[in-house]
Every structure is written in structure tokens, then in C-alpha cells.
Design a protein that fits this description.
mainly beta, five-stranded mixed beta sheet, 4 helices, transport, tonb box
Length: 784
């Protein structure tokens, strides 16, 4: 962690517009640092931050010992040293309560899980973590997903992960909020360029340049990334550009940033048991997604007086996503049972046809225009002679999404699905979704004494979702033609309260209670009718209302300092009401979203970091117990314990799939010489249940736990030239981070359809194999 306390005061002090006592506090918290932001509103653009942003917008911040939660902070420098491609990859390697589900075999498309809650780039995954970039919420309006490939790693100054259901961060903050701040030329001057390459045909080019004048600054960072991938048809091409231009004086700060991305990523589906002996293989191909982003953000702040700061932002964002998914059906040569036998239009039709295809290719286009802004006012005036910090704020986020989907009849060429000629489209979706989210929030931290601090917060959210469109499927009456029109409104006031007691500078006790909410996304609302299931991401059905999810978190712990070591021990308990889950339907490949009652995620976290001589170390351990608390029935026909109608009974206390109960992360950094630095990460995770095994009774059992080690190193040839190296999965371990139950269509010899009807519809546990050992090297040149 990069949060430190009790640092000595520097001899040179920065200019400060706050009154002397506040200025002295900031100097105390921020020292020592090699680069100072002349305007204190810029300090979150520094590589190390010793105050915590307690609200979405950058502001004065709160000292760590006044935050009633186990906040984690990491620097962009640490990401660069470890060669992490995404924020999710970095956190998975360093933070105990974080795990990653590599569902599609692409390094830019993995799920991030924190305390059993998810931030995922995949539509249909229940989302429970809010993500902010320079104060702008980047959960996509259509499905609340997070596209990790859009955030350039070399533009990141620091990362704050705030746990719990913190209401100040608004929608989706059920298990935590991830707050990412970017660099500026004022705090990161200089120019560097780096090139790299190695395993799997990886080629990289990164550059960044920054500078400042008397009252202006600029920063530009760019990335070019190409890799063919280690599995069949898993190529990635990522192109990112970030620029920021700023103006500041002692009382004002104004930044204009532009972020562009044009990325294409191929994914690979998980493999059934009999194919896992060749983990680099693919089940069916192709599967790809293309992201095209343009985003403009204006952030500004102004000190109205020595104790009052007003800040705000405005943003415009356009994202276009093109998706292609290959899908196999349980239809075989000689099969006389059309899959669309329930439809009058398909009566008597045999394969292959639009009614009974062997495979389908699904093409989707999602275009989202988003705009909005936030405003925030911070007061640091004393109250009744006691130190106090009050923040009032408001936010507005608007999203307009157009979603089109076409499911095309296809035939198989080996494992490749090829659209038939002429193209037949048995399923179509034409949907527009308008999201409007308004939030009003306030937080106050009152210091009764220098050792006792009370925090009280609250936020009122109003969310409106308007859907217009249709969904059609000629192959099955149960899918039929659906009217997707609907208007939905959700609102709630979410409170929080916390207490910090610091009996000494080296010891801090904290406790808190907070509540957060998640409104159902347009994706979930458009697929919530069990009588009209959908085939995500292929089609939608209809839009019955879903209830909002409400999370309530209790957290307590103690942290402190022992010599040069910092440590933390804490416990947490988050109960979610009316949680939303995608439930399989008896219609093959289809399902729907439903509220499944209460779920519980509780656990314990222990952390230790410090330095012994030239060796730095961090040890993070987490126990996460994630369970369903309300019994419910689900349809999971691939589960061996399913009833003849395909249903399973999920009992109270069943474990939520995809969440390892125990994780441990160990990081070692050894400054071997003034020129050599060597680092190592050890990642351990316990076993987990596969999706579809919500009742924990499938005969295939759990996905095994794993232990994997990674290495990274730097050698400084000169002040300008640096050599870098990274090795992942050093011991070349075979393991999987994700699993789901499904039907293996390839049951004949040579991965073909079997002519024996008794071998059809073979239920299996599919797993996504993790990457084998690989190595990359690079050179970075820092211009004078």
C-alpha cells in the first residue's frame, strides 16, 4: 500500500491557499514527496497520495486515520514496475480480497471480484462495484459493465479502493468503489518511450510526455499493444491515447482531458473436461469485441476562501461496441427434432434451417452517448471550536444507448462457425435505452478531539430507465416477439456513519455502517420475464419490473504501525436484499434475470507491509464467505442434481459460485543494487463452485484452488535507459480461475457431432484455463 502516516515535515513548503493550520496539516500528510503540486487541489494527480478522496470528485480529502474503512491505495508507479496491463490484473496480483475470473481468455476482458462483488466487462454479469476515472463514473449505462481495456495504464497516477456500500459513490457501490486518478504535466514532467515484446507475439509501444509552464501544464500518454494470444483465436490489438491540459494558480485549477481508444479483442470460450488436456485449444470460434471510445472531461476547482473549495466536472462520452459470438446448438445430422418445434412457423422443419441450425453467429452493435457532471462544495471551518470538514455535492449522469442484435444461421467448419448463405436471421433485437441518474450527497467529518473522529454521510439517488424496442425469434413460441417498451423509476436515500479512535499515532481503531443501492440495468430489465427468456447477448424478451438491490455493510478493524511496518486487521459483513441473478431457463441456452432475495458476503482481512533493509514486502490475506440467504428454485439442466424438468433447489446457506473462500497475496521488492530491482508476486486462491452449481451439488464438484508466482525486474543502465523484464506463471502451473456448467456438443470422435443419439446433450463442467508460463522484456528511455 502507498498510504503512509507520521512522515517528517519537509524543509521546503508548497504554496497553500488554506489557512495556516489547514496548510500545515496537508504538508504533514503529503511529505516527503519529490514533486509538489502548487495548488493543493492537484495532489491526487501525484504518484503517491497520503490522503483519501472520500467523495467522487477530487477535493481536500481526508487523512487515513479519519476514514472508518480498510481503504487501499496504490500508485501508478507500482503498476508500471509490475507490467500490469489493466487495473484489474494489478489488483488481482496484490490485494487479498480481490480475485479475477478470466471468463473469455483475454487479458483485457477479465472479471474483477472484490469481497464477492464484481466489476465485469461482460453483459449480463451482476455488477456490484462502481468505478470512477477523475471523478467520472465509467460503469457503462447499458449494463453497468466496466471496460478495463479503455483505461491506459501509463496515464494512472494512483488508485484508491474504498470498501463497503459507501453511499457517496452512488449506484453500483454494493461492495466497493474504485477511484482512479490520472497524471498531469505539473506532477509528472518529462518524456519517456518504451518498447517491449516476447511470448505469444506480444509487441508493445508506450510513450508519455508532460511539462509545465508558469501556470499551465500538459500530459500525453499513448499505448500500442498487439498480441496473438496463447489460445487459438485470442488476438488482442489495443490502441489508447490520453491527454490532459491544465491551468492553475494558488486558488484555481482547471483540467481538460481527452481519452481515445480503438481496441479489438478476441475471446475464447471455456473448455469442457475432455478438452482441457490441450488448454490452448478453443471450443468454438470466432468470438470478438471491438471498443471505440471518445471521451472529453473538464475538471475544475476554486478556493472561494481559505476554508472553502468548490469543484466540479463535465464530461461527454461516446462508446461504440461491436460484438461477434459463435454459438453451437444441440442439433446433429439426422436429428429429426427441430429446436423450434414450439413455433408454428417451424412445424415440420428439419435441420439445418433457420428453425433448426447447427450453430448461430450473433452480431451486436451497442452505441452509447453519455454526458453529465458533478459539483461539490467543501467547508473546512471549525464547528464549536472543533475541526470539521463538510462536503456537499450533486451529480447527473445521462446515457442514451442503441442496441442491435442479429442471430444468423451458421454451419460448422471444424470449430469455426460460418454464417450460412443466404444469411437467415431467426432472432433480432432493436432496443433503445435511456438512463438518467441524479444524486445528491453530503458527508461530514467532525473531530471531537485529535484522537476521536465521527463521519456521517448520506446520498439520495433517483434513477430512471426508459426502454423502447422489440425482440423477435421465429424459432420458438416461448421467445416469440417481445415488446420491450417500459418505463422504470428507482429512488432511495442511503446513509452511512463511522467512527475512528486513535489512541496513539501508531494505532487506529475504526468502525462503520453504510448502505448502497443498485438499480437494475436496461439489460436486466429487458430480460426479466421467465415466460419469455432471452439468449444473452443474442436477444431479449420483455421487461417486467425488477426490484432495486440494497446492500448494508458493517465493518470494523484496527490498523497501525510497528517500526517500519504497517498492518491492518478487519472484519466486514455485507447483506444484499433483492439481489439479481441470471437464471437459466429450460429453453436451451436461454435464461432471465430475477430477484433472488438476500445474499451475504462476510469475511476477514489481514495485511502487513513494510521494509527490511533493501527488501520491501506486503502480505495480504482475506477470507470471504459468500452465500445465498433466501432459498429459491433455479433452472440449471446441466447440473447433475437437477430434477427432470431441469430445476435445482438452492438452499439457504449455499455458496455463491465464483468466489474463492480464501486468498493470499505476497509481494516482495528487492533493491539488489542501486541499478537492480527484482520483484515477485505469489498469488494463492482456494477452490470455488462453478456457475450453474448454485446448489453446490453438481457431481463435478469445485474448481480447484491454485498457487502461482510471477516475477518482474528492472535494470538501470543509465539515468535515461532502463531494462525491464516480466515472467508470469513462473512454475508453469495448470489451473483455472472460472468455471460454468454446460452442454458439450462435441461428443463424437475427432471433436465432431456424434451419430449416436444416446451421447447427445452431455452435461459437463467447462473451465477457462489460465495462461502458462510466459516472459516479456522491454526498454524504456527517459529523455532529459
Amino acid at each position: 500500500m502507498s498510504i503512509h502516516q507520521n512522515q517528517p515535515r519537509p524543509t521546503a513548503q508548497p504554496r497553500c491557499a488554506l489557512r495556516a493550520t489547514v496548510c500545515g496539516t496537508l504538508v504533514y500528510l503529503l511529505a516527503p514527496m519529490s514533486a509538489w503540486a502548487e495548488n493543493q487541489a492537484e495532489r491526487l494527480e501525484l504518484d503517491r497520495v497520503d490522503v483519501v478522496g472520500n467523495a467522487p470528485l477530487p477535493g481536500v480529502g481526508v487523512p487515513l486515520d479519519q476514514v472508518p474503512a480498510n481503504v487501499r491505495a496504490f500508485s501508478g508507479r507500482a503498476m508500471r514496475q509490475q507490467g500490469s496491463l489493466t487495473v484489474g490484473e494489478f489488483l488481482d496480483a496484490n490485494l487479498g480480497a480481490v480475485t479475477s475470473n478470466d471468463t473469455v481468455g483475454n487479458p483485457f476482458q477479465a472479471d474483477l471480484q472484490f469481497r464477492g462483488f464484481t466489476a465485469s466487462p461482460l453483459l449480463g454479469t451482476p455488477q456490484g462495484i462502481s468505478v470512477f476515472l477523475d471523478g467520472v463514473r465509467v460503469n457503462e449505462p447499458f449494463g453497468d459493465i466496466v471496460n478495463w481495456d479503455l483505461i491506459p495504464p501509463n496515464a494512472i497516477a494512483n488508485i484508491n479502493l474504498l470498501p463497503g456500500s459507501n453511499p457517496l459513490f452512488g449506484l453500483n457501490t454494493l461492495g466497493g468503489a474504485l477511484n482512479i486518478h490520472t497524471k498531469s504535466g505539473d506532477t509528472n514532467p518529462g518524456t519517456s518511450i518504451s518498447v517491449g515484446g516476447g511470448s505469444w507475439g506480444r509487441k508493445t509501444l508506450q510513450f508519455e510526455t508532460g511539462g509545465k509552464g508558469e501556470d499551465t501544464d500538459y500530459f500525453v500518454a499513448g499505448n500500442l499493444f498487439h498480441e496473438r494470444g496463447w489460445r487459438v483465436s485470442s488476438q488482442s490489438d489495443v490502441r489508447q491515447l490520453f491527454s490532459k491540459f491544465g491551468w492553475q494558480d494558488e486558488r484555481n485549477n482547471l483540467d481538460l482531458s481527452l481519452m481515445l481508444a480503438n481496441n479489438r479483442m478476441n475471446g475464447v470460450q471455456s473448455l469442457p473436461t475432455e478438452m482441457q488436456d490441450v488448454p490452448s485449444s478453443a471450443y468454438s470460434i470466432p468470438d470478438s469485441i471491438r471498443d471505440e471510445l471518445a471521451m472529453v472531461t473538464i475538471n475544475g476547482s476554486h478556493f472561494l476562501s481559505d476554508t472553502r473549495l468548490v469543484s466540479g466536472n463535465l464530461y461527454l462520452r461516446r462508446l461504440r461496441q461491436l460484438g461477434f459470438n459463435s454459438n453451437l446448438n444441440n442439433n446433429y445430422p439426422g436429428d429429426s427434432q427441430p429446436s423450434g418445434s414450439g413455433s408454428a412457423a417451424c412445424a415440420g422443419v428439419t435441420a439445418p434451417s433457420a428453425c433448426d441450425p447447427y450453430a448461430r453467429n450473433v452480431l451486436t452493435t451497442t452505441s452509447t452517448n453519455g454526458w453529465g457532471g458533478s459539483s461539490q462544495m467543501t467547508f473546512t471551518d471549525d464547528v464549536a471550536g472543533r475541526k470539521n470538514q463538510l462536503t456537499l455535492g450533486a451529480s447527473l449522469d445521462v446515457g442514451r444507448t442503441s442496441f442491435n442484435s442479429d442471430s444468423q444461421v451458421a454451419f460448422l467448419d471444424g470449430i469455426r462457425t460460418v454464417s450460412a448463405q443466404p444469411v437467415m436471421t431467426p432472432q433480432t433485437v432493436r432496443l433503445s435505452a435511456d438512463n438518467t441518474a441524479l444524486g445528491l450527497y453530503a458527508t461530514d467529518t467532525l473531530s471531537f478531539t485529535d484522537k476521536l473522529h465521527l463521519s456521517v454521510s448520506g446520498r439520495f439517488d433517483i434513477t430512471k430507465v426508459k426502454l423502447r424496442g422489440t425482440s423477435a425469434d421465429i424459432t420458438d413460441n416461448t421467445l416469440g416477439v417481445g415488446d420491450l417498451d417500459g418505463d422504470h423509476r428507482y429512488s432511495r436515500f442511503n446513509p452511512a456513519i463511522g467512527l475512528n479512535w486513535n489512541p496513539s499515532p501508531a494505532l487506529n481503531f475504526y468502525a462503520s455502517y453504510n448502505e448502497g443501492m443498485r438499480a437494475p440495468s436496461p439489460v436486466e430489465l429487458a430480460c426479466a420475464d421467465p415466460t419469455h427468456p432471452c439468449l444473452l447477448p443474442n436477444a431479449f424478451g420483455s421487461d417486467p419490473d425488477l426490484k432495486k438491490v440494497v446492500a448494508r455493510t458493517l465493518e470494523a478493524g484496527v490498523r497501525g504501525k510497528l517500526g517500519d511496518a504497517h498492518w491492518n486487521w478487519g472484519v466486514f459483513r455485507t447483506q444484499s436484499t433483492d439481489d439479481i441473478l441470471f437464471v437459466a431457463s429450460s429453453t436451451s441456452g436461454a435464461g432471465y434475470f430475477q430477484n433472488v432475495g438476500r445474499t451475504l458476503r462476510q469475511g476477514m482481512e489481514m495485511e502487513l507491509d513494510g521494509k527490511v533493509g533493501s527488501l520491501g514486502y506486503t502480505v495480504h490475506y482475506a477470507w470471504v464467505d459468500a452465500r445465498f440467504q433466501t432459498p429459491f428454485n433455479s433452472e440449471s439442466s446441466s447440473n447433475s442434481s437437477a430434477a427432470p424438468d431441469g430445476t435445482i433447489q438452492v438452499a439457504r446457506g449455499s455458496h455463491i459460485p465464483g468466489v474463492p473462500a480464501q486468498t493470499m497475496k505476497v509481494r516482495l521488492d528487492w533493491q539488489a543494487t542501486t541499478q537492480w530491482r527484482i520483484g515477485a508476486n505469489l498469488v494463492l486462491a482456494a477452490s470455488q463452485f462453478a456457475r450453474g452449481d448454485e446448489n453446490n451439488q453438481d457431481v463435478n464438484g469445485k474448481i480447484a484452488g491454485y498457487a502461482v508466482a510471477h516475477l518482474d525486474a528492472e535494470y538501470q543502465f543509465s539515468p535515461q535507459l532502463r531494462f525491464t523484464a516480466k515472467v508470469v506463471n513462473l512454475l508453469n502451473r495448470r489451473y483455472a480461475t472460472f468455471g460454468q456448467l454446460g452442454v458439450n456438443e462435441f461428443t463424437g470422435p475427432g471433436r465432431s457431432f456424434s451419430s449416436d443419439p444416446t451421447s447427445w446433450n452431455v452435461n459437463d463442467q467447462f473451465r477457462s484455463p489460465a495462461a502458462p508460463r510466459a516472459a516479456w522484456v522491454g526498454l524504456m528511455y527517459q529523455f532529459k
